[in-house]
Structures are given as C-alpha cells and as structure tokens.
Amino acid sequence: MADSQKKKFFPRLWRIIKRTLIFLFIFQLFYILLLKWVDPPFTLTQLGSLFGGYGLKRDYVSAKEISHYAKLAVITSEDQLFPDHNGFDFKSIEKAMKHNRKSKSLKGASTISQQVAKNVFLWQGRSWLRKGLEVYFTFMIELIWGKKRILEVYLNVSEMGKGVFGIEAAAREFFSKSARQLTRQEAALVASCLPNPKKYAVKSGSKKIIGGPKYFWILQQMNNLQNDPDIQELLQ
Fold it and tell me: Which of 19, 55, 9 minimizes the C-alpha distance to 164?
C-alpha cells in the first residue's frame, strides 16, 4: 500500500470506528430509556435456554400483578440492602473476594440491580469484559429506572426453573396460579431456588430446597424485614 493510500485509509477507518461507537452508545442509551416503560423483548439468557433445549416459558406482568410476598421473598433471598445501596453492595463484594481467595467454590455478591443488568443486557459467564459492562449498565438502570422498576424487571426476566422465566411463569408452572395469588410459603420456595434454578428447581422437589435450611431462613427473614419502611415502599 502506497504512503498516500495509507494516509487516507487510517483516518477513514478511524472515522468508521468512531461513528460505529457513537451509534452503539446512542442505541444502548435509547434502549435503556425504552425499557423503563417497555418489557425486554428477549434476553440472551432466554435465547440460550430456548436453543439449549430447556425451552422458554415466560409471561411478563406488571408490579401490581405480583404478590407482595414474591417481592419480599426475592429481596430477602438475594439482596436485603436493595432499598439502600446504589446498585453495589461493597461489603458483600469484599466478603466474596476474601472467600474466593481461600476456597475453590466461588461465591458471588451480585445485587438485584447487577443481576438485572446482566440478565437484560449481557450474557452469562465470567469475564472482566462482561463484569465491566455489568458495572456500567447497573449504574445506568439505577440512575434511569429506579428501584421499583428494577425489582419489577427482575421478577419478570429472572430464570426461576429450567426454561421458566419470571414469577408469573413460575407461579403457573409450579402452583397453577397467578403471581398475584402466591402465598408467603410459595414465594419463599421459588426464591429458595435462586440464583441457580437449574440445580435447585421447585418442581424437582429437591430436599435442599423444600423443607431445607434456605427455605426456612427466607421465611424467617421475611418476618424480620416485612415492616422495614424502605422495603414496605417497594412492596406497594
């Protein structure tokens, strides 16, 4: 390639890259804003379940159509500081890092906000790239959506059984009722399967879940947290 051609090629390539990056930034910002009011059409995790042979059962519902027991159960199970943090629980992250340095079994510390960022915008797996993007999307949904919308999306997109996504689909699949009708015990049972519903499924009757320590722990913690004013506001 002649010197004159090189001088034209690289600036042109840089302009293409720059325009592409600007387009992607504007597109993802628009998508985040859109999802404040519109449910995600699909997620990569849902597509992975569908094409991976697990199937795809989902039925998005509004927050008003979800039992407050279900909201309380997932907050209790996954992120008790959800009303208070800005998307990241730094104390839990520090504890998880200390645990992972000493143990072969990896322990996570993702908040509900981080799980929503991963499930809606990203892919499953562990990598520094995905984790970095997760931090960005967590910050953005905390800034734009707010806690109630984040919790609503979490309850609609999270996998709660093999190929079963969202609390409405889980309620229909496991209890033959709507999410609005879930009892305290049923909500705690579904929450007991998180964050690994393929291993701990309600339908399988796993002894580690039904009647197990996590199930009873969630029920006890629900009693302890239900009168917290910040949590009460999220349950409305």
Answer: 55
